[in-house]
Fold these 3 entries.
Entry 1:
Amino acid sequence: MLFLKRYSLYLLIILISFLVKFPIFFFHQWLPKAHVEAPVGGSIILAGVLLKLGGYGLIRMILFVNNENLILFLIIFSLLGGSLLRIVCLVNRDIKVIIAYSSVVHIALIIVNILSKNFWRLLGRIIIILAHGVCSSGIFSCANIIYERSHSRRIILNKANLNLFPMISSFWFLLCMANFGGPFTLNLLGEILLIINLRSVNFVLLILVLLISFFSATYRIILYSNLQQGINNNLIFNMSNFVLREQLILFAHIWPLLFLLLSSNLI
C-alpha cells in the first residue's frame, strides 16, 4: 500500500513537470518574458522544440494515470487558463506577447484532449503539436523581421506592412491562417479530430473548447489586420528590402505544413 502511494506521488510529480513545460495555466508566466527577452532563435527553439518535448512526455505519462478526478481537474484547469488568456490576447498590444499567449491557448486544446487514450485523439493531438511547432516559430520569425526594422514590438508602431512589405504580408497571412486552423491546413485536420472525440468527455467542455477555437481565430485575424493594414505613422525609417535569407526562413516554415498535409493518409 505504501508502495502504491509513493508510486502515485512520483507519477503526479512527473506529470506536473511535463505540464509546466507544456505549459498549463498558472505555470505559463515565464513564457512571454522568455519570448520577449530571447532572440528569434531562442523563440523558435522554445516554440518548436521544447514545448513539443513537454507534449511528448505528457503523452507517454498519461498512459499510467487512471485517476478520473485528477484528469477532470486538469481539463477544467487547462480550459480556465485558455479562457482567460484569450481575453489577454484580445487586449494586448505587444506582438511577441500575443504570439506567446496564443501558443498557450492553442496548447490548452491539446492538454484537454491528451488526457484520453483514444487512437483518433492521439493522432489529432500529434498533428496539432507538429503543426503548432512550425506555425508558431514561423510567426515569431515574421515578428522578428518587422522588429529589426522598426525596433519596436508595439502594434501601433508597425502598421501598414501591406504597403511596405507586400511579400512578408503574404507570409503573415499563410502562417496566421495555418495557426488558427484555416481551410486546407494541418491544424484544421487536427482540431476536427480533437473536437469530434471530445464530446465523449463532457458536452459542456466541448462548448468551452469551441469558444476557445473561435476566439483563437479572432485575435489572430485582429493581429494580422492591425499589422498589415492602416496608415504608416512615418516613425519607421529603416525600411530595407526583404532579403533572400528572410524569404528562405519563412518558406522553410511553410513547406512542412503543405508536405505533412499532402502526405497524410486521412486526406
Entry 2:
Amino acid sequence: MNHFIRNTVLISAALILFSFCSEAAMYWAPAPTHISGGGGHMNRNMAKQLMLIDGNNASASLISPKLARTPLALSEGRVAIRSTGMNNYHALVASRDGSNRHETAVRYIYMHGKPTDASPSQLMAYPKGKLEIEPAPYAREHWHFQAGSRVSFLIRFDGEPLAAANVGMTTSNGSVLTLTSDQNGMVSTLIPDDFEVVKPGRSGNRPAELMLSVLHSNGPEQYISTLSADYYVDPGHWQSTSLALMTVAGGMGLGGLIGWRVRRKKEQ
C-alpha cells in the first residue's frame, strides 16, 4: 500500500471520528520517498522526512531528549529532521490554535548520536499540548510496535489523567477502533494484525501506520490531539511458518532414513 493510499485511509478515518468538526485532525506521517527496499530502512545518517497531513497554518517544533525545543520550518507540510547529535527519542510536535479550537499532533522519532542520560519517559511526560496522548510506555530502541502486540496510552488534559475520553485508533491498513479511557485515563488495546500480505523476514515487509486521536471539550473550548507511529508485521507469522517447514522437512528426512534402512535389510 503506497503512501497516498495510506494517507487517504487515515484521513477518511479521521473524518469519521471528527465528522462534527470543520476539518480533519492533523497528524504526522512519513513523507513519500524514492528509497527502494522492502522494509523501508534508511541510513541512520539521512534526514528523516515527515509530512504534516491537514496541517494548514500549523507551527512545528522538535523536542530533544534534554527537553530543549527547536522551531521547525514547514515546506508544503514537509520537514526534514536531521541528527541533533543526541541518541534517543525526540518529539516532533505540531500545534494550531483557532477560534475555540486547539490542536496538537505528536510523533516520536529515534535519533542516533552521543548517549544521553535522559530517560525516554521524561520526554513522554513532558507537556506538548493541553490535551495529549502519552505512550505508556513507548517502544525502546531496536523494538517497534508490532501487529498483535498490546499497547497502552495515558490520556492527559491539563497535566491530569482524563477519564471517559473517546479515543480512536486507525491504521493505514484499514482498521478502525474506538476506545474509552478508564478512571486513570488509560486505554489499552491490541494493535490490529491487519497486514494482508506477509513475506518471510522483517526486511521483506514495510511498516504500516497507526494514528490515535482524541477530542475533548472544556466549556466552549475544543481540544484535539493525535499521536502517530509506525508498526510492523508480527514476526510470529514467518517464524511459525519456518518452524512448520522445518518440522515437515525433518519428518520427511526421518521417513526417508527409515525407508532406506528397511531396504538395506531386505537386500541383505
Entry 3:
Amino acid sequence: MVKHTINALALFALLLIGGNAFAQDKMMKADDGMKNHNDKPMVVIIRADWCPACHKVEPILDDLKAQYAERLNFVILNVTSDETSKEAAMTAEHFGLTKFFAANKTKTSMVAIFDTKQKALFKTDHNYNREAYVKAFDSAVASHRM
C-alpha cells in the first residue's frame, strides 16, 4: 500500500512538473514571436500565483490582452517561485528589461508599458481600474502610430 502511494505521489509530481514545464514552454513559444518586439509597444506584467492582487487584476488584463493583441506585445514575468523567477529574469533579459525587472520583481500585480524604444510610458500596481488600463493602452497605441 505504501509503495503504491509513493508511486502515485511520484507520478502526480511528474505530471505537475511536466504540466508546469509545458505551460512555461507554451508561454515562451508565444513570446518567441515577440523577439522583434520593437514593432509594437510592450505591456509587461509581473505576477505570482500566490498574489491576491494578481488574481483580482488578471481577469481585466486577460480581457484586454485579447482586445489589444494586434496592437501591443504582452510579456508576463512570473515570480511565483525561485524557478519561475529565474525564468522571468531570463525573459526580462531577452526583452531588454533586466533593470526594470531587478527594480520591480517584488511588486506583484505590476503592469508597465514601454514604447518601442524601451521608454516607460505607464506603470502601476494593485490597480483594478479597467478604464485606467484602457486609457494607458490606447495612449501607447496612439503614440506608436505617430
